[in-house]
Structure formats: C-alpha cells, structure tokens
Amino acid sequence: MSAIQQMLTDHIDIWTAAETEKRSGRGRASSSAARVYGVRKLRGLILELAIRGKLVPQDASDEPASELLMRIRERNTKMLADGKVKNSRPLNSLDKHDLAFAIPSGWSFTKFNEIFSLEYGENLPAEKRTNSGEYPVYGSNGVVGTHNVCFVQSPCIVVGRKGSAGALNLCLASGCCVTDVAYFCIPPEEMDLYFSFKLFQTLGLDILGKGIKPGLSRNDAYVLQVAIPPIAEQRRIVAKVDELMTLCDQLEAQHSDAANAHEQLVSHLLGTLTQSQSAADFNTNWQRIAEHFDTLFTTEASIDALKQTLMQLAVMGKLVAQNANDEPASELLKRIQAEKAKLIIEGKIKKDKPSAKIEEEEIRYAIPSTWEWVRMADLCRPISSGSTPPAEQFQYEDGVPFLKVYNIRNQEIDFEYKKQFIDDSLNRTKLNRSILIPGDIVMNIVGPPLGKVAIIPNDYPQWNCNQAIVFFGLIQPINVEYILTYLKEGSFLQDIELIGTAGQDNISVSKSKNILVPVPPLAEQHRIVAKLNQLLSFCDQLNACVANSNQLQKKIADVLVEHAILA
Question: Which fold has domain 329-520?
Fold first, then answer.
C-alpha cells in the first residue's frame, strides 16, 4: 500500500467528515450539492505530490528529464531557424535559489513557455457552427457545440481565456475547434498528454485571471515554474493518480450515499411528528427521535429540517399545550374586527371588500378546537403592494426609507444594502397607500424565491416599498411574531396558484389577501412564540457546534495535507 493510500485509510473519518454545504431555495441546505471538503483536499494533495515527485518511486534507468528538455530546445531552435515559429516568447532562465521545491535527481525545473505554448482559438459564433457532430467545439469552460471541420488536428488541452479564465478541459478527439475565448495547447511529443493536463491543474491558472470579466494572459502563464519528470515516470504518475482518484470517487460516493440515507431518515422521523393524530402518538414519535437525537442532528441540513418542523408544529397547535382557560380565538377575532371597524369610522383606514368564505377544501390540516382559520385580510389594514416612483424622486441621504426585494435578507430588513430614500411629501401623497410602519410584515411577491418575509423595524417612523413587495399591517390585539412564524414556515405557498410573468413567478395582491391563517388564542400565541424562540435558539447553538466541529475537521485535513507535502 502506498503512503497516500495508507494516509487515506488511516484518516478516513477526517476526509469524510470535513464538508461544506451549499444553500438552495428558501435557505435549506441541499445534501446533493454537499461537497466533501476532506476528499477535495485529498484530490489536491494527490496532484501536488505527483508534480513534486513524491507519488511514485523513481527508476534510475529512466532517461532523465534533462535529455527530453534538450530535445525540445533543439527542435524549437531549428523551427525558429526555419522560420516555422517566431521567437515571441523570450525564455527566462531559472535561478536555483528561486526554485519552488526540491525535486528528485532525474527531474528538471524549467519555465512553462520552454515546453508549452498556449495558442489562440478562432472566432466561431454559434450561428456558424454546423452542430452536425463531427468535431467538438470548445468555449472557455467546455464543449459548446460541434462543427463539420476542425481547427486543431490533434488531442489537446483547452484553457479558458475569457470568462472562465484558467478553466481546463482535455480534448481526446483527433480534432476539435477552440473558439476565441480559449487557448489550446498541444504538448510536445516528449511530454505525456495526460501528465501535462494534470500538471496544468496544479498551476493555479484560474487565479491568474484579471479584470471585471476575468481574462487570462498567456504571458502570466509562461513565467510559471514547472517540474518535469522523465517520460517513463510521467506515465507511472498518470497511472497512480488515476488509481487514487478512483479511490476518492468511491469514498465520495460512499459519503453521498450515507448522507442521502441520513437525510431521508431525518425527514421521515420529523414527518411523523407533524402527522401525529393524537398527543399519545406525538409523544411516542418524539421519544423515538429523542433517543437518537445526537446521531440524527449532526449536519446543518438536519438541524435546518428540525427548525422547519418546529415551526410547522407551532402553527399546527402541536408545540405547546392548550389551556382551557384561554379566551378562544373566535373572541379574539371579534375584538380585531371591532378595532378595524373603529379605525374605518375614524377615517384612519379605508374599508376593504369582504373576504371570501373559507371553503372546507381550502383547509390543509386540523387545528385545536379553540383555534380559528381566517383570511389574512381580516387581520390587517387594507393589504397592498407598493410602487416605484421615477428615479428623480429618490433622495439618497435622508427622507422616508424605500424598500426593494433585496432589502429582505435572512428574514430581516437589511436597509444598509443599496439603501434609498423618497421625499416625505411623496410618501404622504402619491405613495400613501403603501405607507409602512414599524411592526408591519413585508413579503416579496416576485421570485424566485417567493415568500421572503420580515418585520419593519423601529429605525424610522414610516417606510415605503416597491411593487414586488406586499405588506400586512396587523390590527391589534395579535402577536405579530406568531403571524411572522406562520409566513416563515411557508407551507401556505403550496396553496397559491402562481402567475408567471417574463420568466418570474409572482403572487398577486388578491391572493395575498386570501392567505389562510390558523389563529390560536392570544395567550397561546404568546406561549408558542416564547417556546419556539427557545427551541430555535437551541438549534442555532447546535448549528454553531456543528460548524465549529466542521471547521476543526477542515483544519485537521489541512494539516494532514501540509504535512504530507512537506514530508
């Protein structure tokens, strides 16, 4: 067993535990997109050891790299003399004191441009490609079509020049087309194509890109140092790298299978809580989860799923016990309607159209007997979206803060991000229908993603918003945090038929008014919010522990890799 294989098996827990997770949708972690950090580091280590001469043993009978470099130089000199190439790339000698690392005795250091040449691709816009399948057409980051003739009549390495600067692709076809956003390189016969491709992967060409739309200058690549092994060792290195990368693939696949199984188990067990038909059933299902809590909730994705389930339980009446002494929600709704009628009489709000009757088929789940289903419009001042005034109406230093969808971030108002103000007079006249006050809830109705929500903070006495945002001005007495929890939970979106406009889904204002809300007694609303905040805080602490553990695993992986390289 090789040293790298031994290292892989000795520290398998490190390679599979150190992972990062991408985000998707409404902030949920996507396990299918999770990348095992440790395995990624291991792949980099394999390539790094390969190009330092530490992956396979040297063979004294191999022709030294100095001989193949000599042949390359002689051929380049003859081609220059014959006028077949222009000496547009002056060779830079290497000072032995500047060498990046020690190499075996049969190897040689040289500059990139003494061996490799990056040639410009040719202009071949999409409309001129035949797409008939004969030859692949490469852009800066892979195949973008096919053509019936080829510009490059040999297998080659394709290097992104513009856009995906430094991106690498290996073309094994006998011919291909490389467009003008990429370079191509045909290694000299003294260099193994596969080894050359792996060598390119270690040079960091992708970080050499410059500009707003990154572009790779080949002159920046030409001055890079490269360590060259004998041709026979190049082929041994390729074989060993491929063998070890296959092991990495297997390790990653095993981790992915385990992660998917874990996610499905967590989803199933949490689902039993929301589907419980009685208190006894719920307690049994919760006990099953509690017994295995430390093995179930070990990833960011599983903890996010737990938080989502807690919010579901909260708005289903399954998070806290009901109290027979609580004033029922029906009485609370009468008081809200009385307060709304009073505001209408006083001219403080306008009278809205009566809400449509709630049909039985609209009700998604059963709620406790003291709760009531009600439409959002019956809990609020007249619901509206905003509008956008002409650009010249904005003041950028003071006035009434004006919200856009991008200001609703992480379920809070982030006004510091691209903040804008409008005149107070404009707010009171032309935009008076969408005046917001602290405590109002705003929700984006244009996506994706739809349904981001936040409470208007106390930073300013009045706010306003554009037409991509709808607002819910809740009439007291009601617990605003409870209503926010219901909207955050987000399952109401499943019942709304979306409208498609120019490739974007959106929710109409009328559908926003008709959102069904399960309303508990006011005292229970307060208990729900207090308990949920307590449990979500616990989840955040658990997430922090998982994040710290992952960071520690990453550091250990980094140390193992650094030790292996320097050994």
Answer: Adenine-n6-DNA-methyltransferase TaqI; Chain A, domain 2 (3.90.220)
